[in-house]
Amino acid sequence: MLSVNTNTGAMVALQYLNQTQSQMTQVQNAINTGLKVATAKDNGAIYAIAQNMRGNIAGYAAVTDSLNRGSSVVDTAMSAAQSVSDLLIQMKKNALAASDSSLDDASRASLNDDFTAMAAQIDTIVNNAKFNDINLVDGTNPTGISALASASDPTQTITVAGVDLTSATLGVTAGFADKDEATAMVDTVNTAITNVNGALSALSSGSKKFSIQADFVAKLSDTLTAGLGNLVDADMAKESALLTSLQTKQQLGIQALSIANSAPSTILSLFK
Asked: For a designed S-S bond to 260, which of 10, 50, 101, 104 qualifies (C-beta 3.0 to 4.6 A apart)?
């Protein structure tokens, strides 16, 4: 039926053209954003899942930051403990030399001055072993440092206890005035070396716990990021091919609509 009031062919052609245009808009958005699901409008269910995954990834980023800070605090303490251990070895040498009965008083006094200077250096090192204003070796922080271990449960933490490596606690501040005191100090320094090395071992173990957990969190975050990409990332090669196809369909749709719109004009030929 030929009608000037209703052009069914044009209506159908316009419907298909609008569908093509809508598909082109989606493809262009995917190309512009790199995402096939950029908003909830694209796919509400996938978008909700993706947002939950983004929240988890952000949580693991916070955990990583916490672990890195904790690791830095412990590493600073380890450096101080190593320096204290080295100083104690030198102090043992001085005390042992001063215990020699053949040594004259002036030489022994000189060794003691060096000994007490190194004891003071221990305190300087210990007092400055801070990171983020946290000191694990001066005895002021026995509870130590705690870092987040989980993105879902903030109560799950990794803790490294603090120690006290001050010269007073180690018992090496007094020095020695004579051979007998020097002999006794050798035993004291030996005990101090044992204690410091034990503290160093505990700090090293804590540092490893931070490192192992940080590696695990990084791998877990990478896995989630890859999974998120699989859900929402656009396949650019596929989108490019689809865009070319839709552009062709758009041109054909425009031509079809043009042909359909010209159909009513054929009615004029009936009245010639």
From this structure: 10
Task: Provide the domain count of the chain.
Answer: 2
Supply the DSSP symbol for 138.
B
Torsion of CA 45, 51, 54, 55, to 10 degrees: -130
Q: What is the dihedral of CA 216, 218, 223, 228, to 10 degrees?
A: 140
Partners of residue 130 on adjacent β-strands: 135
Q: Is 1 exposed, middle or buried (0-12, 13-18, 19+ CB in 10 A)?
A: exposed
Q: CA torsion 44→50→54→60, rounded to 10°?
A: 140
> Do both 86 and 109 map to the same domain?
yes
CATH of the domain at 168: 1.20.1330.10
By residue range, what is the domain housing residue 148? 44-232
**Higher-confidence position of 109 and 248:** 109
Of the candidates 156, 90, 88, the residue with the CA atom closest to the CA atom of residue 122: 88
Q: Is residue 212 part of a domain?
A: yes
Average pLDDT over every residue of 122-133: 96
What does the DSSP 8-state code read for residue 101? T
- 80 and 190, same domain (yes or no): yes
Q: 89 and 22: one domain? A: no
Two structure tokens written together for 104: 């004259």
Specify the higher pLDDT residue, 268 or 62. Answer: 62
Does the pLDDT of residue 266 top 80, yes or no?
no
Give the model confidence (pLDDT) of 160-208 as tens digits: 999 999 999 999 998 999 999 999 999 999 999 999 999 999 999 999 9
